[in-house]
Amino acid sequence: MLRNKSGQIINPSTSEKQDDIIAAVSGNLKDYILQEADDYTTTNVNYLGKIKSDGTWLIVKIDSTGNFDTLRYANVSNNGTLSTYALAWAARTTATYGYLNTLTI
Known about the structure:
Strand order of the largest sheet: 3-4-5-6
Oligomer: single chain
Distance between the termini: 16 Å
Largest sheet: 4 strands, antiparallel
């Protein structure tokens, strides 16, 4: 269930205000700071490495090989052996990626 800043439920399948929907979905991501970007290792794929001040990491994989871009996400919740940002960034091409809503953030 998505909620806007006022705590009201937002229904993304209707014409709710787009800014409210984006803010609700990305609210947990606002504390991540971009550290690195890689647009050369894998053809048509970009990786964005992000980290929070407490060391919690997140890597976003943007795949442009199809008709539209797909975004998938990796963090320690779906990559338990990658306990640090340095390990995660080094393994970005082989890490497990999933939908944002499947991660513990």
